[in-house]
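tool=predict chain=A
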Amino acid sequence: MVKIRSLELGEFPLLLAPMEDVSDPPFRALCKKHGVDMMYTEFISSEGLIRDAVKSVQKMDIFEYERPIGVQIFGSEEKTMVHAAKIIESVKPDLIDINYGCPVKKVACKGAGAALLQDIPKMVRLTNAVVKAVRVPVTVKTRLGWDDSTKNIVETAESLQDIGIEALTIHGRTRAQMYKGPADWSLIGAVKNNQRMRIPIFGNGDIDSPEKALEYKNTYGVDGLMIGRAAIGYPWIFNEIKAFLTKQQSLDPPSIEDRIAAVEEHLDFSIRWKGEKVGVAEMKRHYSNYFKGIAHFKDYRTRLVIANDLCEVLEIIDELKANFATVSS
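tool=predict ok
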């Protein structure tokens, strides 16, 4: 049983990665339905949270059925991170996760996210301050290093464990790689197999099939897997991986009816949570992912992306339902 303090996650948990503009409550609800063991909010700016920015505060919305769930924060200043962590603790998440892996310029150029990979002592100080400030478990998500010359994740993991983090997720790329090239899991395995390490180690990067999940589990010995991009528009991946890991059983892929039903659920929740105008607008980024690989979908996609009126969107979805045999042929 993998545990983060008293939080039981199962024998080999599958985690949903925190993804900006993706892992909001509507998307998380679908992943929960399809077998994810633990989820995280979109990452939250500590600066935005202490300024009471609407978007940052809204990201803290969590629901009881989502548990276990962590709230992830990023920042570059100790006082700000501590203040934000205390605010987050008030909404009673199961844990607080600190992001030291986000590679995008708007985060890294402010000295947060993956930028801390250039200053490990500061990363440790920030983490230590948050650990001491809250009662919930604190975990970290990071990368192998800033670039090929600074792949210091083995030593970094030891330092973070020593100041009290209770789990570590490692993305198998450097910041310089962004999301390009294959993830290097050998260093993730080196952290997991380091005899000094006592906390759960989760691997992240390139897990996009049940077969790869089993291969990486067996090869690198990690305690669980975090899945990000492969779950976008495909929440079924969690149950597919579980079936393959436990029974070597390959589940049938979702039918066109399953995909349409998922879109309807996602859209309905988005509208209830964000309001009709924003809910309809933000769903536009998801349609292509839900129908990826489906023949003859291009015209429907164009119409869905152009449509700004809910009634029009629902009419297009009804057309998809009526013509799914043609769409999937």
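The mean pLDDT is 92. The CA atoms of residues 20 and 59 lie 10 Å apart.
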